[in-house]
Amino acid sequence: MTRSPPPARRRYRAVLAVGVVVAGFATAALLRPGDPAASAELAAIGRGTVEDTVTALGKIQPRAYVDVGAQVSGQLMRLHVKVGQMVREGDLLAEIDPALQQAKVEAGRAERARLTALLDELRARADFAQAQLARQTALRRVEAGRGESYDQARMEARTAAAQVDATLAQIRQTDSTLQADEAQLGYTRIYAPMSGTLIAVDARQGQTINSTYEAPVLMRIADLSAMTVWTQVSEADITRLTDGMPLYFTTLGHPGRRWTARLQQILPAPPKPVTSGSTNGAASSGGGTGASTVVLYTALFEVANERGELRPEMTAQVFFVAAEAKDALTVPVAALTATDEASGRHSVAMIGEGGAVVTREVRIGVRDRFNAQILQGLAEGERIVVGWRTDDGRPPRIGFRL
């Protein structure tokens, strides 16, 4: 009678048999070649537009504007305009109480009248003194007059002529003062220096204006038919910009709208940083002097605004187009492996005949952060490898080359 093996030995043999079967399957899987395309993340070569751009933020401002101020002090008696109103050059905007300036003008005119009358009197005295001098001169020739009388007549003639000249100088001085006072009187009526839209009014009717030390700004008039975009470009990108290069920008209020223009000017130095006593708002957009502060340069360009869609102080996302390729063969940047950056040569992995993975050298042109233009080495429709799936079936983490 044959004895059956003990239970422990039976379990050992079962485990051994299962291990042999699993090892056989694993060996067969290692020896049998798999399909590379099954674990590859593929992309087909297609056509598109590739842009090499420099991105920056900008502020939209009117191309032409003027701050209207007051040149005289006094109470703002009337304000004839309001914000948003269209005005033409020469329109009356505001009136300041002219009482003080009018009084100065009247005093100046009265002083001039007094001096004119005094001049007539002095000229009469000068004519009389000149006649006296002529008589004394005639008597002296015939030795019939006294020398003292001649000297007295000559002195009085010269004195009278000098008084006439002094009065004429006073009249000229009075005329100059009167002219200034009349100009000050004219400044009590404020007119529009240009045509445009009133985009800000900082004064109120009845307000007292003090222009003793500086001219206070009452309002701003701007021509909104054309706008200037003040763009801040970092020092790392400013060397890539050139005058006349194409660009486009978008705004938050018009996400689906794109405006195009050309770069017109790059200011040679960054704006000055704000100091403790500075009140100039434009300086706040400049670079600082600290080691950790980014230096920003200002690039300017203009854009038409006939429909009034662009408004002052809007933020613009600007894209300066350094290079562009339209309807070009494109490849994802993640699929490229650099072999010679200077000449634009890279290598890509692709699916060849029979499903085998092969490496091919390509030459690229314009590139952005995600795609590159193919100049040589690939054809439309060919499949390339952009990454490999992990063992658990999840797509790999692909690091895009920036």
Identify low-pLDDT runs.
14-33, 276-291, 397-402
CATH-level-2 architecture of the domain at 55-63 and 224-322: Beta Barrel
* CATH fold topology of the domain at 55-63 and 224-322: Elongation Factor Tu (Ef-tu), domain 3
Which shape, going by the Cα principal axes?
elongated
- Percent strand equals 35-45%
Kindly provide the name of the CATH class of the domain at 55-63 and 224-322: Mainly Beta
Distance between the terminal alpha carbons, to the nearest Å?
80 Å
CATH level 4 superfamily of the domain at 55-63 and 224-322 = Efflux pump adaptor protein, beta barrel domain
Q: What structural class do you assign from the helix and strand content? A: alpha+beta
Instruction: Output mean pLDDT.
Output: 83
**Radius of gyration based on Cα positions:** 45 Å
Subcellular location: Cell envelope
GO biological process, one term: xenobiotic detoxification by transmembrane export across the plasma membrane
Protein name: Efflux transporter periplasmic adaptor subunit
Transmembrane segments: 12-31
Describe, in short, the structure shown.
By secondary structure, the chain is α+β, with helices and mostly antiparallel strands.
